[in-house]
Amino acid sequence: MGIGWLSPMGPRLMSKEDTPAAEPVHPEVISWMASVAYLVGTPAVFLFGYIVDNYGRKKALMLTSLSMAACWGLKLYSTDTWALITARAIIGLGVSGSYVVTPLYIKEISEDCIRGTLGSLVVLSQNLGNLLVYILGEYLCYQATLWICLSVPLIHLLLFPTMPETPSYLLKSGKIEEARSALAWLRCRQPTDTVVDSELQTLLLELEQTSSSKFFTTLRTLVSDRSIFRAFRITLTITLARELCGCLTVLHFASSIFSAAGGSLLLTPNQQAAVLGIVQLVGSCTASSLVERTGRKPLLGTTCLVSGVAMAVLGAWFALSAGAHAWVPVLALCLCIYCDAAGLQPVPFVVMTEMFSFQYRGTVTSIVIAFACALVSVQLRVFQPLATQVGLYLVFWLFAGVCLISTAYIVFYVPETKRRSIEEIYAEFDGKKEKDPEADVTRL
Q1: What SS3 state is found at 131?
Q2: In degrees, to the nearest 5, what angle opens at C-alpha 168 toward C-alphas 113 and 347?
Q3: Is the per-residue pLDDT at 234 higher than 90?
Q4: Which pLDDT belongs to residue 18?
Q5: Which residues of 370-382 are buried (b: 16+ CB within 10 A; e: fewer)?
Q6: With 70 as the cut, is the pLDDT of residue 260 above it?
Q7: Which helix (H) or strand (E) holds 395?
Q8: 325: left (phi over 0), alpha (psi -120 to 50) or beta
Q9: d(CA 201, CA 193)
Q10: In this predicted model, what pLDDT tens digit does every residue of 105-128 receive, in sequence order?
């Protein structure tokens, strides 16, 4: 909910007539507001990795809500440039922490049979929050929108203390009886139940297997083992494709893009941006079924290709006929956002978890999220100045080029991981040891 706030509120802050600030906010400041959250989020990923291991998942999650509440409170306090940028930096802590801690908390409290469904709710909740902010930004004033945004983390801070710490962390801390009680509460059973005892023994065995794994030891193995390193390169490359496809930039600057497009549609730029939010929500709802029906590689390649074609069409529209056929940019952007939510966003995470064993997933996840935050921070910082200097059409063509090149990479080098063990995937890599052209591509 915090990240999507900038799209409807950015144009309002820059408006001469409707700005809540003392004077219209300069576009350069809006660019910094967009990028600074991810800039701060890059090192914050490792900070929260430390917090979650040493102070617990529950405290780490409450810290994310505290940072979000501080962000909205600061924006209510002041609309000066320093406050707007500082608030976005603070929410960068919360957002990066959420991406690190929330999946871990869900994994450790849920049963295997519902873990996938609960995990998909993370992206679904994020997209629902984006849509809510689009709607609030269109129909409510600046202050009312901020108060509603502030209420969400405050409610979480009030209610979440009643939730238990994860059994895995309690076992790691040596609190076996507390872990038993927490597990029994989560499973709606008595602490003496045999099901609880059996799961507790499984968690203890898993803890023994992973307790000796250290960050730098894991990192050294990632680089030295040929098959693991290749899986790591593939993960970073498809993350690069996901973040540089242009969809996140579109979501941040949707209202500004639609304002630049003009046209004769009855919808306002913010209402058109809300349509993107609805499409994104629909895409995230269909992602879980699509990824199981089509497989990881076909879905990732198809959505990347369609996004590239749509971005190319969008760039051509801005270059040749901006103002005419106003439905074209709306349709093209809706197609991009749907493909992003249905494939480009979720599939790389699925592929990543299926290419690494539990000893490496935590380290790889931290590195990948930090890498993604760094890419997005640079992208959002340069988008508006670059669009002003060279034109929106060229920027969209750059996004299209990334998508199309990434599609070729996916076709030739990304393995299908659906219903395949890690050993089977690595055996495929080992079969190409004599010649590894993928390494040359990823070094470019």
Answers
A1: helix
A2: 50
A3: yes
A4: 65
A5: bbbbbbbbebbbe
A6: no
A7: helix 392-413
A8: left
A9: 13
A10: 887 888 866 765 676 677 778 888
Single-letter residue type at 205: L
By CB atoms closer than 10 A (0-12, 13-18, 19+), residue 250 is buried
- Answer whether 255's CB lies under 8 Å from 11's CB: yes
- Averaged pLDDT for residues 146-161: 94
Instruction: Report CA-CA distances (Å) from 181 to 167, 178, 383.
Output: 9, 5, 51
432 pLDDT tier (thresholds 50, 70, 90): low
Torsion, Cα 84 86 91 96, to 10 degrees, reads 130
Q: How far apart are CA 441 and CA 409, in angstroms?
A: 8
| Residue 259 CB neighbour total at 10 angstroms | 16
Cα(253)–Cα(251) distance, integer angstroms: 6
**pLDDT tens-digit series, residues 41-70:** 888 888 888 888 788 889 999 999 999 999
Any idea which residue has 């929500």 for tokens? 281
- Note the pLDDT of residue 443: 45
Q: Token match 């959250």: residue? A: 37
From residue 263, give the alpha-carbon distance in Å to each of 170, 255, 332, 337: 58, 13, 15, 20
Residue with tokens 């790389």: 348
Q: What is the Cα–Cα distance from 181 to 147, expressed in whole angstroms?
A: 37
For residue range 190-203, what is the model confidence (pLDDT) as tens digits?
988 888 888 888 88
Give the confidence band of 277 by pLDDT, cuts at 50, 70, 90: confident
Q: Which of 288-296's residues contact partners 24+ apart within 8 Å by CB, and which partners?
A: 288/116, 288/117, 288/120, 288/346, 290/342, 290/343, 291/343, 291/346, 291/347, 291/350, 292/418, 295/416, 295/418, 296/347, 296/350, 296/351, 296/354, 296/416, 296/417, 296/418
